[in-house]
Prior knowledge:
Layout: H1 2-21, H2 25-47, H3 50-67, H4 77-95, H5 124-132, H6 136-147, H7 152-159, H8 163-189
Amino acid sequence: MKDEQLRTKEQLHKKIIEACKKGDNRARYKLYELYSKAMFNICHRMMNNREEAEDMLQEAFTQAFIKLESFRYESNFGSWLKRIVVNTCINAINKRKVDLTYCEEIYDYDTQEENDNYEPVFTVENITQAMAQLPEGGRMVFSLYLLEGYDHGEIAQILEIKESTSKTQFMRAKRRVVELLKQTHGDAMDKI
């Protein structure tokens, strides 16, 4: 049943995409409605600012509509669009000429081992607030790896850094998020 629903959804999206390629503005709006919320979330996590995220979303959709003829259904449309969104955000950040800041230069960390036996209850809001406090470089790596599903090799290529830098940035950003959650949630986090 799920396979049949997925095929039906893919066929519907294919019809919308094909109509977009022919210049149908109603189809473009429908495609925007289908994907804008998920793509905005990516923009917001990467830009850490609502207004900039809105700008990046519009820029990414503009680029997607311009490049739509190159979409060949070799992957699903959401993945193709996500790549455009991520690249749009990274290009905007690079234009600001912000270098990745090593977290260790800003924060001192304990080298305590994490206790894997305790599973704290986190809310998306708490984690999002902690992520917003990360340095830009750490936040980008953290978001691309953990939330967008890129591996460290892909992140290194996207951000033009070494793979080891990506891994280090992720580890430090993760520690910083835990540290921030401990600060804001005290006793509930002591078991981590």
